[in-house]
Amino acid sequence: MAKTSSVVRNEKRKKLAAKWNEERKRLKAIISDLQAGPVDKEQAMRKLQAIPRNASPTRVRNRCQLSGRPRGFVRRFGLSRIAFRDMALEGKIPGVRKASW
């Protein structure tokens, strides 16, 4: 089980990223716009830099929903490899079974 503080911190990052998502998109569109003047781009860059660092979606870490483990994450199921294997062997994930050939 991951430290509770790590899991909580990551949840805060998710909420912050969702909150600032539209504003970040708007500012980035202004910065990359070829028609925008240099003054507008400069203002947009300053506003983008003023947004909290943890509002960036790249700072959100994929973690297992059951254990909070950050490594060995299976994106399709939202579980770590260990939790995925345990649940698959117990038959708790529909449509998944152990391969044999």
| Overall structural domain count | 2
Helix content: 40-55%
Number of helices: 3
Largest beta-sheet details: 2 strands, antiparallel
What is the CA-atom radius of gyration, in angstroms? 20 Å
Averaged pLDDT: 92
Tell me the quaternary state: single chain
Strand-residue proportion: under 5%
Q: Write the H/E string, N to C.
A: HHEEH
Summarize the structure.
The protein is mainly alpha-helical and 101 residues long. It has helices at 4-32, 38-50, 81-90, and strands at 73-74, 79-80.
Topology, please?
Layout: H1 4-32, H2 38-50, E1 73-74, E2 79-80, H3 81-90
Antiparallel strand pairs: 1-2
Helix pairs in contact: 1-2
Description:
The radius of gyration is 20 Å and the shape is elongated. A hairpin with a 4-residue loop joins β1 and β2 (about 80). α1 packs antiparallel against α2 (about 40-50). The chain has a two-stranded antiparallel ribbon. It folds into 2 domains: about 1-60, no CATH class; about 65-100, Irregular (30s Ribosomal Protein S14, Chain N). It has helices spanning about 5-30, 40-50, 80-90; strands at about 75, 80. The chain starts with a helix and ends in an 11-residue tail after the last helix. The mean pLDDT is about 90. It has 3 helices and 2 strands, in the order ααββα. It has about 100 residues and is mainly alpha-helical. The longest helix is centred in the first third of the chain and has 29 residues, at about 5-30.
